[in-house]
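# nightly structure sweep
# worker-07 picked up a monomer target from the shared queue
# config: single-sequence mode, recycle default, output format = structure tokens
# input follows
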Amino acid sequence: MALQITNANFQDLLMGDKPVVVDFWAEWCMPCKMIAPFVDELSTEYADQVAIGKVNVDEEEDLSIEYGIRGIPTLLFFKGGQLVDKHVGAVSKNDLENKIKNLL
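# output follows
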């Protein structure tokens, strides 16, 4: 299961020793609901290598503003605390897994 990311734990997660994938989503977003099952699956499959979490844009507005989130779902990919990749819109499990592999 993907981690719940909040403003309170976001910086600690970025400073950890693993690459980080952040899914910005909302409960009312149909494309977000479409990708949610495989975001959760990949968070379990890659738990030892990558931290994968979700930010609810309705609850964590500050993070959404900080990272310029204008459309959801938006997936951000961090390595060494730095943003290295971004994907806006729905994505297939295979494409998301390939992006995760590129982080490793």
